[in-house]
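User: Structure please.
Assistant: Input sequence and predicted structure:
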Amino acid sequence: MRPTHLSILGVGLLGGSIGLAAKSVLTNCKITGYAHRMQTRNLALQVGAIDQAASSIPEAIDGADLVILCTPVGLFESFLSEIAPALAKGTIVTDVGSTKRSIVRAANRLLGRKHRFVGSHPMAGSEKRGVEFARADLFRNALCLLTPDKRTDAGALAEVAAFWKLLGMRTTQLSPDKHDRILATISHLPHLAAAVLVAMQDPAAMNLAGKGFLDTTRIASGDGALWRDILLDNRDSMLAGIGKMEKLLKQARGWLKNGDGEAIRAFLDEAAQRRDQLLKAKLREINQD
């Protein structure tokens, strides 16, 4: 898909990066951005992420052939409610949310069958926030997860996939349920674990922290309100993931208590091997592109 009028609702890091990336590959596309705060809209204009700023959602989506929701997950339903009466028939709507079940259900309920919604989750981002950190290359070689359900229009799905590929992404498809179940352990639980590692430290210990600790806890610097919404929206999968982590920690505690060095080494070696395999696979994906 090569939209001629792109509407970005929420011009923060991801929304701003979409605007910059689209501008780098689309020569005849008008990009309209909306943010609740005028300061954010003006900054998005200054960094070149959008061509024009809208002061309301209906104004932002007027005439758009592609609308992308880039707000925190907790705001999606209210934005969809406001979009619904102003959306032109046939306009494609997608999003960048880190959870998918709730947004797909809300879109089906609020937009109805005359509109075309496709759930998207570009696996790209940063612990930094704000349009001032937007980058045109943020999505290059990254993976975008598309989450169609039985009501998803096949043509719209193909168009959205083509758009993300235009920005340099690879795409794959999985159901909203499977998305949320998998992302709980590979994305959402790691964020919570990083926050726990920071929270458990004594102030004196923090002063001694080195690069390893900073690398391990980098994502704990993310926006608390944004991540609160994600964790609560995916709470059932999160609880299952926490249970699995607790089981492994209890097992590791037993090895330490019993001085079982062989079990500890085997566990650590297996984890290192799995991570090395993941890194090699990611490098192959990038090199193939």
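The mean pLDDT is 92.
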